[in-house]
Amino acid sequence: MVFIMFSGEFIVDFNEYVGDFDLILTMNSGQTSQPPWKMDDNNYYEIILIDNIDVLVKISQEKLNDPLIVKYFSKEEFNVEKLRTKLFYIFDLDYNINEVYDFLEENSQLSDVYEFNRGLRLFKSQFPFECIISSICSANNSIKRWTKSLYDIRRFCGRSVVFGKDTYYVFPREEVFINMSLDELKNCGVGYRNKYMLNSTEKIRDSIDFHENIFKLSYKKAYNEIIKLEGVGPKVADCILLYGYNKHEAYPVDVWINRITTYLYFKNQKVSNGKISSFAHETFGMYAGYIQLYLFNYARLSGLMSKLKEI
């Protein structure tokens, strides 16, 4: 059978979104929404679903605020404007990032953070379920290990999509994922988290319109629902809400965010994760998610993380 390829290209210019955007910085920032997209020759590739049609996206940007070059390929015709809208959602390009910059400038403890994070935006998942599994997998795990596990799950039971000589894998839906055995998941490198993943998947499947309902809830109400999933503690819940459901108020607190926040605001005293979280919500408000992302990246690139290791 010969397929007639539906393909094309569009450009997203700097003046189409408010503030800065750095695709490479965003893609490689370790956000737990999903593994980084496949990279080849300075282009990123991923399968995006538009009205259940597989669309291969090839996206590139030379440097900060340069035009985003988006090329697309599909075996069926689809609504290109919906693809643009979905990409704006995934990279949070509809959000006025200048508000975050202004907040950083107005707070003396955060004044050095901007220069290390210019153009870094949220990298949100197109599939909330993948973000749930990814975030559970990331707990007490290295970025390298959890991203490999997600790739392995995609290859083992995800849907394969072939374009030319290349094969891409779409993360499995809940009804497919639930059929994986504990051993099969363990072979994907998730370890003891295999039970958490399957039990949480079962709970999601037992709920009517689970994802749609979480999107509609306020941050606090959504948090109270997500925390009920097995293997989901406060930090993982906030990761899921931030990257899977676009709740900007979420402030995931792990050991490093605890250390960074206490160093900047609590004179390096020992403070519980719960207190750090409450402080962040009260102090950072709607910018909490971005502040958390920026603080981690700032600590990593500025040398603060190395300094904290010695304290």
Automatic annotation (TrEMBL):
<dbReference type="Pfam" id="PF07934">
    <property type="entry name" value="OGG_N"/>
</dbReference>
<feature type="domain" description="HhH-GPD">
    <location>
        <begin position="137"/>
        <end position="300"/>
    </location>
</feature>
<dbReference type="InterPro" id="IPR003265">
    <property type="entry name" value="HhH-GPD_domain"/>
</dbReference>
<dbReference type="GO" id="GO:0006284">
    <property type="term" value="P:base-excision repair"/>
</dbReference>
<dbReference type="GO" id="GO:0003684">
    <property type="term" value="F:damaged DNA binding"/>
</dbReference>
<dbReference type="GO" id="GO:0006289">
    <property type="term" value="P:nucleotide-excision repair"/>
</dbReference>
<keyword id="KW-0456">Lyase</keyword>
<dbReference type="Pfam" id="PF00730">
    <property type="entry name" value="HhH-GPD"/>
</dbReference>
<protein>
    <recommendedName>
        <fullName>DNA-(apurinic or apyrimidinic site) lyase</fullName>
        <ecNumber>4.2.99.18</ecNumber>
    </recommendedName>
</protein>
<dbReference type="GO" id="GO:0140078">
    <property type="term" value="F:class I DNA-(apurinic or apyrimidinic site) endonuclease activity"/>
</dbReference>
<dbReference type="GO" id="GO:0008534">
    <property type="term" value="F:oxidized purine nucleobase lesion DNA N-glycosylase activity"/>
</dbReference>
<dbReference type="InterPro" id="IPR037046">
    <property type="entry name" value="AlkA_N_sf"/>
</dbReference>
<comment type="similarity">
    <text>Belongs to the type-1 OGG1 family.</text>
</comment>
<keyword id="KW-0227">DNA damage</keyword>
<dbReference type="InterPro" id="IPR052054">
    <property type="entry name" value="Oxidative_DNA_repair_enzyme"/>
</dbReference>
<dbReference type="InterPro" id="IPR012904">
    <property type="entry name" value="OGG_N"/>
</dbReference>
<keyword id="KW-0234">DNA repair</keyword>
<keyword id="KW-0378">Hydrolase</keyword>
<keyword id="KW-0326">Glycosidase</keyword>
<keyword id="KW-0511">Multifunctional enzyme</keyword>
<dbReference type="InterPro" id="IPR011257">
    <property type="entry name" value="DNA_glycosylase"/>
</dbReference>
<dbReference type="InterPro" id="IPR023170">
    <property type="entry name" value="HhH_base_excis_C"/>
</dbReference>
